[in-house]
Design a protein that fits this description.
- Helix 8 crosses helix 10 and helix 11 packs antiparallel against helix 12.
- The protein starts with a helix and ends with a helix.
- 19% of the residues are buried.
- A hairpin with a 5-residue loop joins strand 1 and strand 2.
- It is flat, with a radius of gyration of 33 Å.
- It is mainly α.
- Helix content is 67%, strand content 3%.
């Protein structure tokens, strides 16, 4: 009868189990030198970066030494009262139109997601009309609404009217700008909110329903926090776009930032420096808004990744400064 040793092949010496109290491992020698990992060289990227840096330096140098910019005039008018009043109106228009736009856009998004075909169709039709026509055309249309409806009345449908007011006296340039920009932002906000809601996984809603959670709690604790991750970046872009888009109200003689600058250079003929003033203010405000958008996105991105959030630029600067200090100690 064959034994297991006769049937199974013999193991090599280095694979055989060692006898008790005996080890076949070679004696430990000096530790081997650790392999050094060298980053791959990328000369093309460094060459492209050098060219880009050179072009940027040339542009800055040209802007500084070009006398046509008239930087002294820019400095004189940058904080002028008329310019600051126009900036205030621009910020007010942006805040009002975007706030109203998101409130009405939430209603439209809810209608668009409704199972009622009438509500879905009406919401889609509104969004289609206002996204398909240029904003300037919409503003000019509302500015001349008096030609279409000379008077507006409040009363019984198909019956007598109790209050009647002339459209010319009711809708001035500023109110026309608020209405036109709000209706435009509503259409875009509705699509942003709808996309954010649809980005939430349906399985989580089904799990919440299986746990017996109420609709308000599901909306507040599950849908909104996850939808905001998709809504905030686009909403931030909408905010910056709305700020710049308010410049079109200058065609209605609304004293926003651009119109205030235009009034100055139409009298002084200093077109370039006054446009630089408006450009610098737009750059300053959009920079502040971009920083705020960055931190709002970080707030709603908590828990989205296992590794946590990357450090902010301020945290990176502090870490680099601390590293430099430690290296000099």
């Amino acid at each position: 009868m064959a034994t297991p040793q006769d049937v199974l092949p013999a193991l090599p010496a280095h694979d055989r189990p060692a006898a008790p109290g005996h080890s076949d491992r070679p004696p430990a020698g000096p530790p081997a030198a650790e392999a050094r990992i060298v980053a791959r060289r990328k000369p093309g990227q460094w060459a492209a970066a050098a060219v880009a840096l050179l072009l940027a330096a040339m542009a800055v140098n040209s802007a500084i030494h070009n006398k046509a910019f008239q930087w002294s005039v820019v400095a004189d008018w940058f904080t002028a009262r008329s310019v600051l009043n126009g900036l205030t109106l621009t910020l007010w228009l942006t805040a009002v139109t975007l706030a109203l736009g998101f409130v009405l856009g939430t209603v439209l998004a809810t209608m668009r997601l409704s199972t009622n075909p009438v509500l879905r169709t009406l919401s889609w039709g509104y969004i289609w009309v206002f996204r398909s026509t240029p904003p300037l055309v919409q503003l000019l249309f509302f500015f001349n609404i008096g030609a279409l409806y000379p008077t507006l009345g409040l009363g019984i449908p198909f019956g007598p009217e109790f209050v009647t007011v002339k459209t010319v006296n009711l809708m001035g340039p500023t109110l026309t700008a608020v209405i036109g920009l709000t209706l435009l932002e509503t259409a875009y906000a509705a699509e942003v909110i709808r996309g954010g809601i649809l980005s939430v996984d349906r399985g989580q809603l089904e799990a919440a329903a299986a746990l017996g959670l109420g609709r308000w709690r599901v909306l507040r604790r599950i849908v909104v926090p996850q939808a905001m991750r998709a809504i905030v970046p686009t909403a931030g872009n909408m905010l910056i776009g709305a700020l710049k888009g308010t410049s079109i109200v200058s065609v209605l003689a609304v004293s926003d930032l651009l119109y205030s600058v235009q009034l100055v250079y139409l009298q002084s003929y200093q077109v370039i420096p006054m446009l630089v003033v408006a450009t610098l203010w737009y750059l300053a405000v959009t920079t502040v808004l971009s920083i705020g958008q960055y931190y709002v996105e970080r707030h709603f991105a908590r828990g989205a990744t296992r590794d946590g959030l990357p450090p902010t630029p301020l945290q990176r600067a502090r870490a680099a400064f601390a590293k430099v200090v430690r290296s000099h100690e």
